[in-house]
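re: ur question from earlier - yeah i can do the single chain one, its not a big deal. heres the input i used so u can compare w yours
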Amino acid sequence: MDREEAEKICEAAKTGDIANLKALIKDGADVSYFDKEGVTPLMHAAKHGHSEVVKILLEAGAPWNALSPQNLSAGDFAMDSGHQEVFDILLNAGCHIDEKLKLARWIQAELILGTIARKENSKGDLNGDYLEDRISFSEDKLMESNSKAVMMAWEKPLMEAHAKAICSGGGHILNIGFGMGLVDTAIQQYAPVSHTIVEAHPEVYKRMLQTGWGEKDNVKIIFGRWQDVLPQLESYDGIFFDTYGEYYEDLREFHQHLPALLNPGGIYSFFNGLCGGNAFFHVVYCQLVSLELENLGYSTLLIPLPVKNCLGEVWEGVKHKYWQLDTYYLPVCQVTEDSSDS
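and the output i got, formated as tokens:
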């Protein structure tokens, strides 16, 4: 099919011409075709709110996660245009919340998004590379040697909200990943019975000791990767997870240990920076991680926090903008009632 013929499927999707669209698909039209503007038929249909067209294209194999030159997916087009029904259809295409097939399709969708996440980290930034890298501290950021931010001061309100959530029941608190110490400083304000901090980067660990964290009566510092120090961990009433240089697979692996680490009635939370550069994929990830935790027996409440005013000019001199969205969804996770009763 030549370019002129291929353009017809984009036009049919744009105008909502279902009859012509079906005929084109039957004749072998490429549903994944990118037009001269770099937009697929699915993106056109989503932008114009044609829900039936979206369904037809998805059933024909149109990729829901394809990206335009502006890094926008069909879901982003639907979101930006305010087409909620289309957005929900695409969200379900990404998450596949069908009861009979949800686990297998969830794994499939996660693998697709895992590929996207790796593309965002073009240099790899594996945990091992980060731990061997030199880092620099300043008043408002913790940076890698290649000008990528590990943690930044704009996150402080978020870290305070995380601390409030996991410390709501008092008791024993665990934090995986010290960074700039924002969440740990906030945790200390709640005077927990014990406060365990796991930190793997040698320079961050050294700075922790230099700034007196090892001298606090209720603080226990464990140096090493969380995967390696699991035998040293106990059980806790509140847990926060915020590592750098790891992928979603590492977060999922940590979740497998939650039943042994989190006390009944305890609160778990994590830094929700999943796909922080794309609004639609971020929502898909939020749904995926909630589903994963549900399968483990945890309910997840996602609390929206506006962050647009926190960002300002913070990215000046920073190579990788790891967060570009206006709203942060803070996860608060607890054992579901059904699980606690069993």
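DSSP finds 17 helices and ten strands in the chain. not sure if urs matches, ping me
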